[in-house]
Amino acid sequence: MRPLVPHHLSRPLALGILVLLLASIGLFIIMPLVNGYASDSVVLAENNKLIERYRQQIARKPTLEAELQSLSDLQQDSGYYLTGETEAVAAAALQDYFRALAGTSGAEVKSIQSLPAKTEEGLSRVALRVTLVATTDSFYRLLHSLEGGSPYIFVDHLELQMQRKSGGLGKIDESGRLSLRLDLFGFRQPGTS
Questions:
Q1: pTM: predicted TM-score of the whole model, two decimal places
Q2: Average pLDDT of the chain, as a whole number
């Protein structure tokens, strides 16, 4: 029986096949593993950087909480909000405040009605419906006092009419007096006094 490959070529051919087999193992098995390890090490390095940033944020938490508390205290002491243990107490304080402003501006309060409190964006909205009589000048002074005062009070749903003479068949009173109906509201922080 005669060999398929001549004897003098069998050794180099066997070495070539061995080199080809080793190159294939390196190319198709070892290289993907090395590349996978390299990409895993890049992902691991990115994750370590991310973890370090999270640790820095966690370390800042006490400082941020202290700043938040400071801002919250400053906001409560600002005078921008109505005070009172409950919405009813805050509404009563708002009534007193409005009556005082109306009195100093020369307006005459006819009636004040408390409206139901509502919660808006975490704040309690305390509202009143007011009916009053005022001249144009006194109403201007009243609005100016409300706008520039503290706590912040907002006017909503304003209705005004010139007053009619009594017994004058609907003739307008020449004194320039206005009949007004308006809703006022301010905000109270829940849980504050």
A1: 0.57
A2: 84
